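Bug #77: duplicate submission created two jobs. Keeping one. Sequence:
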Amino acid sequence: MGKQKQQMDIAIYFKAVDTYSLIPESDLPGKRYADIMDIYQDEGRFPDLSDTHIAIFGVNEDRNAIDNEGCGMGADVVRKHLYSLFTGAENVKIADLGNIIQGHSVDDTYFAITNVVSTLAANNIIPVIIGGGQDLTYAVYKAYEHLGQIINIVAVDPSFDLGKDSSLIDSRSYLSNIILHQPNYLFNYTNIGYQSYFVDNEAIGLMDKLYFDTYRLGIVRIDMEFVEPVVRNADMLSIDISAVRSADAPGNANAIPNGFAGEELCQIVRYAGLSDKLSSIGFYEYNPSYDPHEQTAMLVSQAIWYFLEGYYQRKDDYPARAREQYVKFHVKIQDQDDEIIFYKSKRSERWWMEVPVETDLMTKYERHYMVPCSHSDYENAMDNNIPDRWWQVYQKML
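Kept job's structure:
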């Protein structure tokens, strides 16, 4: 009964998808996502989630999306293009739950999102959310509070969205509300791709004081593989489509000329799919009103395709599970009491480093003291330098 009852509980939040104009007719051989997804297309016949790995849903909510009214209408446009893509894996078990019905107030919509995400996550189903404004990230975060799970958030965003008034929740201030929310379940926040002219020095200083990670767009684009361990450390990934340059993603009222290329977004999202740790992902701020040729919708659908491909290639090699499947390295740093222990997976050749933690805190931080890293972090330690990733987590454990 467990899963079946819970899926009925969340069905009340959803409106079925009108697939008549969204599912393509094709005589081409091969399976498309429209052929293999369990789509909520008939009212009263909600998908059976008992075997589902991933649940896609849209959110028709843009009342707190600053200067981007209309972004609550993007999910079906993305669906049209996603449904037409060929599947990249066998034994795919994906449901499309439809669209969360806009609540009487924005808080009502947040409440629905929080309950849906917490129910899915409790059943090991990964939600893929097509928003809506990026303020919906706050509602997703609250789902982890329901689960009692301390998490890492990674945002792909040209700014930090701290806002000026922490009492408000909108697409430009949601992060302040997450930071100040009590009880707090945020272990770390990471921004990928911020652009310096959109961020003041005080905000950067605050991020440093909180031991959060921030990476400028130019630094990340020099070597996109740098992003892999950063994304691998995320429990939830929040993507503001304005982080992609307007030439590749014009479908946003706040689109800007600089940003990631479309293929770079897909690379980041594929890394997220490959991560055993990541348990939710959201694509926000897509606005079809500014996307006459549906180019941005196509990009978001292809990014979701890469996430799904990555998910079905997961290695299940998080080190806390079976350490005999790893090569272990001990590195002693001069003038540092604790040596740094590295693990290299025999399955994927990915790297982690272990941060020392008090025994009585190991349960609380069980998802955080094994820090994803790269071979270059190991080489850096061998050169007698403490890797930045290790040091920041170490400070949080004190």
